[in-house]
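[stage:ingest] chain + small molecule (iron/sulfur cluster)
[stage:ingest] validated
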Amino acid sequence: MRAQIAGSLAKTAAGATAQAVLSACVHCGMCNATCPTYALTGDEADGPRGRIYLIKEAMEGNRVTRHTQKHLDRCLACRACETTCPSGVQYHRLFDVGRTVVAQNVQRRWWDRLRRWVIRNTVTRPAFVAPLIVAARLFGMAPARVVVGNRPSGTRTRRMTLLKGCVQSAAAAHFNAATVRVLASVDIKLIETPGVGCCGALHAHLDDPATARRLARRNIDAWIAALEGGDEAVIVNASGCAAFIRDYPDLLAEEIDYTAKARRVVEHLRDPSEIIRQNPPTAMRTPQHRRIAVHDPCTLRNGPGLAGAVENLLTNLGYAPQPVANPHMCCGSAGAYSLLQPDLAGRLRAEKLAALTAGAPTAIYTANIGCWLHLAQTSSVPVRHWIEAVDDVI
Ligand code: SF4
Ligand code: SF4
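[stage:predict] done
[stage:export] tokens:
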């Protein structure tokens, strides 16, 4: 696809990224086949090819309208389209540039700006999230509190840094405690490095890229210090946060001091399943409930290419994951998407839960705090992080 990036954007790294991605697209439309929003609405503008055209128009300096913004806002950023693109188009990189350009050119209505501000400034702060979760639990809108359990003390042969998380540390502190226990069982100590906080994903997705870059720089500085201090890897057990951290080099592409550091962090970024695959723990017990369903978040499947990794790992520990239809379909969580697009997100969740529960599992296991909160709201069976299933049997 020929594109002529207009104005000052053409001279930036973001403009070069957009140009390269647009050039790779041959507008064949094969990507539409795996796009969840296209499947729901059947509207070309709600599919990847249509959105690529809309972004191209914006990049070329044509008038951008609320029509463009509406269809970009409906994108889940799930990257399912990239898995069926024969030309290797990196849609998500174009989308990140495109939505920023559109946000700069289209003034949102006051209530839309307000709700985005509220989400950015509450959901990412554990002190605000904690009472919200308590209230949500009272109304049955969040999973019940789980006992956090102990964190083994003492040294281990190997050491890695673990992202504490913002929403997760307030809503599901037991995820990290279980991760610490599981990795301790294979002689790895996990440390929540001081100075690391929110990854910045929600700020970037909600029209505040400057704050996202500031948070990214802060985390990078702390992680580089940890790596230089002997930590082997940066462990992130929330696949949505990991996906955003993997994009730090693009986020900081204009900041020469930080792009190389961001790449170094990404080289050391690991999902716990990657560590466990190389260092399998010994199962000391057989699972109490073998029949389970695994929900691979888009951010685990489509970015790092870890589709099926959790399922294999749990099978090796004695679980019996049931087949799940259309695993490429997003559950609708997608960061703040479920708050901003409740209708589409609710329909995707209903389809996902129907697929996940078709095999009558005793529990659903996922790998992302957002999917966990979103699915658990209406799930008829418990939703858990897969690391809890490992923790149960070691
Ligand atoms: S499948 Fe790839 S090349 Fe074809 S329209 Fe979609 S993004 Fe473009
Ligand atoms: S990222 Fe997901 S929702 Fe967005 S265009 Fe691609 S497949 Fe569709």
